[in-house]
Design a protein that fits this description.
By secondary structure, this protein is of the alpha+beta class. It is 29% helix and 25% strand.
């Protein structure tokens, strides 16, 4: 029986261990934290957005970096497969807006408990509080380099026929994601591409964002530009914070923003009324004003905007707040309309790895076999999950990358492509 060591007990690592054990390997799972799936507990605001209920083609469309690398992994273990896996093991799921899949209980801990039970049932040996310090290598009969095990931080040498590195990235370092996998990859001779935080909030230049802190805008259109170049466009929910902006629509934009931000600030364009054309919005404003014509301008906007946003809209429109509505000119109304359809915020940077959901960058995928997840440089060494240079938009896509690559790595490390 081949022995497989999995370094990292997160989503990808647990799935890799499950797959390897189900294919008949003796599996040892090493996790540096005091419990498995520590990062899973905080995903989806503690509810765990397990995957996205969509076809493989749509999964691929929501991958930002190196989507072609994921063909084999996604087609071998799709979103539907992951849902079937969990539900067949007693975990009820539900699908919410945007096809996001969550446990019916809304408890991320139930996902980890389900996976932990499967590990136990398959006889996987789990060692918590065990950090892998380095890989061990040997030479094959034909003179090629092969992995032969790992050495833990305490100095213990552990033998393995194959090793799967699934240590995560750099995001949320409090969960143990501190770049261990990259260190191990470099030790094995692999290239690690430039790392940057992704799916993270933006910092903004305008002082008014502090006034809007906590304001959530739903069903708005967001567009990210740098000069005349359009970087990203989406419809959804966003949130103002004390430092800038966040929320699902904005978090996905961050995955495309790291490189452009190095050249300078970006502009976030917010369409506060995307369902209305400029003509329809003008008619709506006229109707609202008709019913409020003797009121002050600042007191006549309650039907158009959230209360917290009104003082900012008044100031940015250039219309005096105490002006009577019936005295607002056509030109002033046009300014209000333009501001409503294109409320801009200057984005100056990303918040960093402590607030990033995922890491962009990682082990160069050109050095990894996409059909097996095995290193092309070292025999018997596999990679899975966030440690690879793979990332997607928010909505369950990144966890599906972890499940799919973890399963493929586990099956192949055990010498099998199917259960």
């Amino acid at each position: 029986m081949d022995r497989v060591i999995v370094a990292g007990g997160g989503a990808a690592g647990m799935m890799a261990a499950i797959a390897a054990a189900s294919a008949g390997a003796e599996v040892l799972l090493l996790e540096r934290n005091e419990k498995l799936g520590k990062k899973l507990y905080i995903t989806g605001k503690g509810r765990c957005n397990v995957t996205n209920d969509c076809a493989v083609e749509e999964l691929l469309d929501h991958v930002v970096t190196n989507r072609k690398f994921l063909y084999s992994a996604f087609y071998g273990f799709s979103s539907r497969d992951m849902q079937d896996f969990l539900e067949s093991r007693g975990l009820r799921l539900k699908v919410e807006r945007g096809n996001r899949v969550f446990p019916a209980s809304d408890k991320a801990s139930d996902v980890t408990a389900c996976l932990s039970a499967e590990l136990s049932g398959l006889g996987v040996s789990v060692r918590l509080g065990t950090r892998v310090e380095r890989l061990s290598f040997s030479e094959t009969a034909d003179g090629k380099r092969a992995v032969s095990g790992v050495v833990t931080e305490t100095g213990g040498a552990l033998f393995a026929d194959r090793v799967i590195v699934a240590c995560g990235g750099m995001s949320y370092p409090s969960t143990g994601s501190t770049g261990d996998g990259y260190r191990l990859a470099v030790q094995a001779g692999h290239t690690v591409t430039e790392l940057s935080p992704a799916l993270c909030p933006f910092e903004a230049a305008e002082p008014f964002v502090k006034e809007l802190q906590g304001l959530s805008l739903r069903n708005v259109g967001v567009r990210l530009t740098q000069g005349k170049k359009r970087i990203y466009e989406e419809f959804g929910e966003m949130l103002f914070t004390h430092f800038g902006v966040s929320g699902p629509a904005v978090l996905s934009a961050s995955s495309l923003a790291a490189k452009p931000l190095k050249k300078g600030p970006l502009t976030l364009h917010i369409d506060l009324k995307p369902a209305l054309s400029p003509e329809q919005l003008d008619a709506r404003i006229l109707r609202d004003f008709e019913g409020e014509k003797n009121r002050q301008f600042s007191n006549a906007l309650g039907g158009l905007f959230p209360a917290k946003l009104i003082p900012v809209m008044v100031e940015r429109s250039g219309i005096h707040g105490e002006k009577r509505v019936n005295a607002v000119t056509r030109e002033e109304r046009a300014r209000l309309l333009a501001l409503t359809k294109d409320f801009t915020v200057t984005l100056t940077g990303l918040r960093g790895f402590k607030e990033a959901i995922i890491t962009q960058g990682g082990v160069k995928v050109g050095e990894v076999d996409p059909g097996t997840m095995e290193s092309k440089l070292v025999k018997g060494l596999y990679f899975a999950g966030e440690v690879l240079d793979l990332d997607g938009f928010t909505g369950g896509y990144n966890l599906q990358i972890a499940w799919s690559t973890g399963r493929l790595a586990g099956l192949c490390a055990a010498g099998s492509r199917s259960e």
